[in-house]
Write a structure and sequence with these properties.
The protein is of the alpha+beta class. It contains 3 helices and 8 strands; from the N terminus they run E-E-H-H-E-E-H-E-E-E-E. A hairpin with a 5-residue loop joins strand 6 and strand 7. This is DNA-binding protein.
Length: about 150
């Protein structure tokens, strides 16, 4: 089950539902154990591969490519930038404020012609409302999962 609570947007003075992340993140070791349990690959082998996936993805994306992991989705670099009114003031280094990784979940066309997204199985995803005064055990959701401004450094 997933969790949400009512969140006030102070500038617009309206309430929105906000997805909430509870507890600490599930770590690589836990994912590896679960993958090992449901496959024929050992826990240590899974951890070794997962441990190497980030630098391999980075190497491909720094060459201008997107990375597709079947059943999961696509990853690519995007830029957080500021614009300039005059082309003579254009300076890439000064205008780039952050490099981000954009993730787009895989999608699959259903027999009815609609699409379903990987990781979002709306048929089995149950949302539970938390009281607005609930203190979270971890970072709240709603976009970045508590990631700092520039996770790439």
């Amino acid at each position: 089950m997933a969790f949400w609570k009512k969140q006030l947007n102070k500038s617009k003075k309206v309430y929105y539902p906000q997805a909430i992340v509870k507890g600490k993140p599930v770590e690589t070791e836990d994912i590896a154990k679960e993958l090992a349990r449901i496959s024929t690959v050992s826990n240590s082998d899974v951890q070794a591969v997962l441990g190497d996936i980030a630098p391999v993805m980075h190497n491909q994306m720094k060459q201008g490519k997107s990375v597709h992991i079947k059943g999961l989705g696509y990853f690519r670099y995007t830029l957080n930038t500021v614009g300039v009114a005059d082309l003579k003031d254009f300076d890439f280094q000064k205008q780039v404020k952050a490099v981000r990784v954009e993730f787009t979940p895989d999608r699959e066309k259903t027999s009815s012609g609609t699409y379903t997204r990987a990781l979002v199985d709306s048929g089995t995803l149950e949302w539970i409302e938390l009281p607005s005064d609930t203190v979270d055990d971890g970072p709240s959701g709603g976009g970045d999962g508590g990631i700092e401004e520039n996770p790439l450094g």
